[in-house]
């Protein structure tokens, strides 16, 4: 019998401040090993400071470690720049990355920048250089830990396997149907009021009489669907791709939420056709589809188990009401002499609820919800303003001088105004 490998149990993740402290400990070890090659010294310093807490020791070797670390340093740079650009754009002139750091992919240079004391009386840029080098190298090591336990290639392969299983077990062969939809967002209480659907754009125009234009703007679009037949009813389903990207994975781990949804897929139930009539799907329809999918899709190599996770404290109450439409389990996929048993999550929702996450102007809107999580959990961590934001870091790690009071009403209002403008 092949041994099961659980990526989530193999993950040896450390929060940013803990990783920063280990980076500081790497420098004296690196200096003592100066007779070795740069790659060997860096790898040995890493292994000696990062003792495994789960019994899985790093055996990648110095050359592979150097290759991977350089790639993750680049990932860290792009990650921080992306957060500034996409989440905190109004503050981009206050929190830009130091020029000596933004293009530095050398682990040795970053380690030197991060561990060299700032001279007395040095300017703000010197303090920022040291902090940002320490931050970027620590983030890169966090990404290395994630990748070592659960390679991103495996994630793509598993989700591709799910796509093939869905095609073979759920969908009518060669089914590809365009469904037009008309929705309205209310001016007061900004939520999607109702949705009407039709097979053609021309047929959709007849539904405009059911909407009062004074109550809010109408949005018209189409969506490509696959067909699922359940008894004598036809279910039109759009397959979405909400898998966790690297920023979301890192954010979730910093929140101590785990990453069981890294392999995540979503079926958006658009409509149901029955007795010559097409209508928008309801929650009751979604529950019926959920039962059907659990019965037909969740067979070997998908293994379903009960969801023992706690509700997300940051999500909108309407999200939490949909917990019954979530299926969790593991995907078993052979990998040499072992089987990778990775956590997986399936979500089924309706087009109405999906549009609410796009058009609503509260935490039902997924973009606003995500932005607020970055503000709550990463802003002070990556761009600290007070000494408390530095946690247990030693006193010679100075504040980088971003001059952003994240809790202030002015900063929060500025960010929320910009977020709303981007919807």
What's the mean pLDDT score? 90
How many beta-strand segments?
Answer: 10
Which spans of ≥5 residues are poorly predicted at pLDDT below 50?
A: none
> Helical region count?
16
Hey, roughly how much beta strand do the residues contain? 15-25%
As a whole number of angstroms, the C-alpha radius of gyration is 25 Å
Q: How many domains make up the 3D coordinates? A: 2
Structural class by SSE content: alpha+beta
3D shape? flat
Q: Give helix and strand order, one letter per element, not per position.
A: EHHHHHHHHEEHEEHEEHEHEEHHHH
Largest sheet: 10 strands, mixed
* Helix coverage percent: 40-55%
| End-to-end C-alpha gap | 52 Å
Structural descriptors:
ten-stranded mixed β-sheet; flat; 20% strand; single chain; alpha+beta; 423 residues; 16 helices; 10 strands
Q: What does this 3D model show about the protein?
A:
This protein has 423 residues and is of the alpha+beta class. The chain has 2 domains: 12-149, no CATH class; 152-368, no CATH class. Helix content is 44%, strand content 20%. The protein contains 16 helices and 10 strands. Strands 1, 2, 3, 4, 5, 6, 7, 8, 9 and 10 form a 10-stranded mixed β-sheet that branches. The longest helix is centred in the first third of the chain and has 26 residues, at 124-149. The N and C termini lie far apart (52 Å).
List the topology elements.
Blueprint: E1 3-5, H1 7-10, H2 16-32, H3 38-49, H4 62-86, H5 99-102, H6 107-115, H7 124-149, H8 152-169, E2 177-185, E3 192-198, H9 201-205, E4 218-230, E5 233-240, H10 246-254, E6 263-274, E7 277-280, H11 283-296, E8 302-305, H12 317-320, E9 326-335, E10 338-350, H13 351-359, H14 366-377, H15 379-382, H16 409-421
Parallel strand pairs: 1-10, 6-10
Antiparallel strand pairs: 2-3, 2-4, 4-5, 5-6, 6-7, 8-9, 9-10
């Amino acid at each position: 019998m092949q041994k099961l490998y659980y990526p989530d149990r193999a993950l040896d993740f450390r929060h940013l401040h803990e990783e920063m402290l280990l980076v500081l400990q790497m420098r004296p070890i690196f200096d003592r090993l100066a007779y070795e090659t740069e790659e060997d010294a860096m790898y040995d310093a890493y292994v000696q400071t990062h003792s495994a807490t789960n019994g899985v020791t790093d055996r990648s070797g110095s050359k592979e470690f150097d290759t991977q670390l350089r790639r993750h340093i680049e990932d860290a740079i792009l990650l921080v720049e992306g957060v500034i650009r996409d989440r905190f754009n109004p503050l981009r002139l206050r929190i830009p990355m130091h020029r000596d750091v933004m293009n530095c992919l050398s682990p040795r240079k970053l380690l030197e920048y991060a561990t060299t004391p700032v001279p007395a009386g040095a300017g703000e840029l010197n303090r920022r250089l040291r902090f940002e080098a320490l931050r970027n190298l620590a983030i890169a090591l966090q990404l290395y830990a994630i990748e070592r336990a659960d390679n991103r290639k495996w994630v793509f392969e598993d989700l591709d396997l799910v796509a093939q299983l869905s095609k073979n077990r759920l969908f009518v062969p060669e089914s590809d149907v365009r469904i037009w939809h008309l929705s309205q967002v209310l001016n007061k209480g900004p939520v999607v009021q109702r949705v009407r659907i039709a097979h053609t754009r021309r047929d959709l125009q007849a539904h405009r009489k059911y909407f009062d234009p004074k109550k809010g703007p109408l949005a018209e679009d189409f969506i490509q669907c696959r067909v699922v037949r359940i008894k004598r009813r036809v279910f039109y389903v759009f397959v979405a791709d909400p898998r966790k990207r690297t920023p979301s994975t890192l954010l979730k781990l910093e929140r101590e939420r785990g990453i069981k949804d890294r392999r995540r897929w979503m079926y958006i139930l658009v409509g149901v056709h029955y007795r010559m009539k097409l209508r928008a799907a309801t929650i009751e329809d979604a529950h019926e589809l959920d039962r059907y999918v659990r019965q037909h899709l969740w067979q070997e190599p998908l293994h379903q188990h009960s969801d023992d996770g706690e509700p997300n404290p940051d999500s909108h109450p309407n999200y939490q009401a949909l917990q019954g439409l979530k299926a969790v389990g593991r995907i078993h996929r052979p990998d040499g002499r072992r089987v990778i048993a990775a956590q997986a999550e399936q979500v089924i929702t309706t087009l109405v609820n999906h549009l609410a996450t796009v058009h609503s102007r509260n935490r039902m809107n997924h973009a606003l919800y995500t932005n607020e999580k970055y503000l709550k959990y990463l802003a002070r961590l990556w761009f600290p303003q007070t000494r408390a934001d530095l946690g247990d870091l030693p006193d010679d790690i100075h504040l980088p001088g971003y001059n952003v009071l994240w809790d202030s009403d002015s900063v929060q209002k500025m960010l929320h105004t910009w977020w709303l403008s981007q919807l």
